[in-house]
Amino acid sequence: MRTNTMASFGDFRCGNCHALVSSMHMLSAVNNRNHCPYCLWSCHLDLYSAGDRLSACKAKMKPVGLTLKKSRNKYQLNPRGELMLVHICTDCNSVSINRIAADDDPESVLAVYHSSLDVSHPFVDRKGIRMLHAGDMDAVYTQLYGQNVEAALF
Ligand SMILES: [Zn+2]
Ligand SMILES: [Zn+2]
What we know:
By secondary structure, the protein is of the alpha+beta class. It is built from 6 helices and 6 strands. The chain has one domain. 25% of the residues lie in helices and 19% in strands. Helix 3 packs antiparallel against helix 5. One zinc ion binds next to loops.
């Protein structure tokens, strides 16, 4: 029985919007896709590092905001850091940051960003993650659409 084992390995159904999500690297351009490209909700699967799948929690993780993560790669396109999604587990309040995949809906990413502007997340601060605020709008648009706010809106 070898039917479709490669193609379907890692595919999952979103626990929030119930869409079938493909984990194929070709589509998402990230390894270890762990969130839904449509609603951006994730699942608490990893314990120590991305992709280890060691967490016993398995609860849904809500996208609560965006952050910028600096990498050590000197060739990276964005000197301020790469735009990342911040997820919080609805069950154990665990916080994780995740790369935005190539097929994630930019409108959904933007919606998460805007909804994060009027709430405070003290537990996120405690982990040392700086949530993006209204002053970071240019960085968000530049990374999502390749142009700044004015160019994207007008
Ligand atoms: Zn979903
Ligand atoms: Zn959890």
